[in-house]
Amino acid sequence: MKKDMEIRCRSHRQQLCETLRYRICARRHQLYTIDRKEEVNVLEDEKIIELSFQRNEEAIGQMQEKYGGLCRSVIKRVLNDDRDTEECASDTFLRAWNAIPPDRPKSLKAYLAKIARNLAIDKYSYNTAAGRSSALTEAFEELDFCICDLSGGPEDSIDEQAFRSFINGFLREQTQDARVYFIRRYWYGESIREIADACGAGQEKVKSSLFRTRNKLHDSIKREGFMI
After folding, report:
1. How deeply is 24 buried, as exposed, middle or buried, from its count of CB atoms within 10 A (0-12, 13-18, 19+)?
2. Which domain holds residue 209?
3. Using the 8-state DSSP alphabet, how is residue 40 labeled?
4. Quick count: other Cβ atoms within 10 Å of Cβ 61?
């Protein structure tokens, strides 16, 4: 069973890497563009913000045109349902419209991504059982320790390919059990009990393994220069 899980874990390393990279970028108030298609006929961010301050509803359409793909990508990392994704995307732009003014975001892209992410997590919590939601929330909070020393500014960004290679290399260096526990916890959002039951291990063993792996990840992220 461990061998089968190891194979499945490999296929999800890239997705786990993207989750971690997002959280680091969010800490720096900067998010790489996920929808990389060339945008046409859209205004600069500052102009969109000015339209919002003027209460010109064209601002909503401009935000949807420019950052709709980005926000949907952020939301889909949390939600699997297309209808919920579209609902959260629409709510993202409406919430931004209602918040600007008085808010004047320095980075409209990061501002919208943060709203989208929070709405998606709220929707996830509403849709799922309390225990499952709690496990996912706790898992995210545990990962925050790994990036708590970040001090880069909004202009800083993280190279996607370099960070993906780093995470893949880091996970390959861990034991099979450590990899399985880590991906189950921080990608699937499973509780400690669920991981222990699925892997035939004690809960204390799982907790200790995750603690050691988080510490190693924290040190590795800092050593490799992803913390400035």
Report:
1. buried
2. 1-28+150-228
3. -
4. 15
Decide: 45 and 109 in contact? Cβ < 8 Å.
yes
CATH number of the CATH domain containing 11: 1.10.10.10
What length is written for the chain?
A: 228
Is the residue at 70 inside a domain? yes
Ordered DSSP codes for 140-182: HHHHHGGGTT----TT----HHHHHHHHHHHHHHS-HHHHHHH
Going 67 to 69 to 75 to 77, the CA torsion angle's sign is: negative
Task: Over range 95-114, report the average pLDDT.
Answer: 91
Q: Where are the beta strands (DSSP E) in 22-179?
A: none
What mean pLDDT, rounded, does the chain reach?
A: 76
What DSSP line would sit under 22-91, residue for residue? HHHHHHTT----S--SPP-S---HHHHHHHHHTT-THHHHHHHHHHHHHHHHHHHTT---HHHHHHHHHH
Give the dihedral sign, CA 31/35/37/41.
negative
pTM to 2 decimal places: 0.47
Question: What pLDDT, in 10s, does the model give residues 72-99?
Answer: 988 887 887 788 888 899 899 989 999 9
Q: Is residue 5 part of a domain?
A: yes
pLDDT of residue 206: 95
